[in-house]
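Message: Study each token:
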Amino acid sequence: MELLVTTTCALAMVAAGGLLLLISLRGAQTSALNHRLYDYVDQAVLGAKPQDSLLQSRSRELSGTFRARILTPLIRGWTGVLGSLTPTSTLKQLEEQLALAGNPLGMGPREFYGLHVGIMALGLWIAYGLMRNGLAVSGPAGSKALLSAIAAALAVIMCYYFPKAWLRSRARKRRDSIAKGLPDALDMLSVCVEAGLGFDQALLRVSEQWRTPLGAEFGRVVAEVGMGIPRREAMRNLVDRVNSQEIASFVAVILQSDQLGMSIKDTLHAQAEQMRIERRFRAQELARKMPLKMLFPLTLLIFPAIFAVVLGPAIPALMEFFATLNSGGQ
């Protein structure tokens, strides 16, 4: 019993430590409204009272939180040291995965690999502690050794798959966010084109107004075009970075319209309408999947509680009835 309690506490500590690490690694991310408010306040303050460059740089250094100014750079430095011996093939694969996830926390492949190695070392240390504590507990040797081995294996597996699962989750959330915001972005692009802006200027305006992953990708496309990369290649790089079917369709239509000399405005209108229809279909698909997903919580959690509430008061009467029948038969 003592070994089971120790194992449960250790696994809870592993889960809590992973959650705290995830929270600490998340940068000081604020919403788009907060960003715009900060920009407005900074412009108002700078317009009212000019400051020299030294004071401005100092205020920028002190404007972040403790997590963004001290904790995140410290973790990135240590993980970069741990990931200095990463194989080249692994670095390339991690770089592609980080690009799909939007380079979370500004980590490179070496830093992420070092973070993975550090979490694995933590898992091995926890597994060693569990094995040692399990062997020290008095009781049947076979049962305590088996429980210690299971707990140690679970700790190692959790620490090994946690960074990969977190990276895949970030990539999936980013892809869903881009697909969800693409119809509205196309509407804004069409409005900008109707107002007389070129396609590149419209992309730049969307990237300036929207603090979203899609806005950041549009800004990167404009930056690549400004650096001399052809627009066709920059748009294809966008497809490679996002790996989304909606973005691939949008880029294909834009490139085809540019090649055939069609109107960008009409193309953007038609593409926005198509994207809204597809977004509606995706929402309906998710809604139809909800009853099946709710079946397992209902079966495992809610139905037993309902049975306990409904049949619980009748259990003493049934026990007394069967006891009476048993005594009468004897």
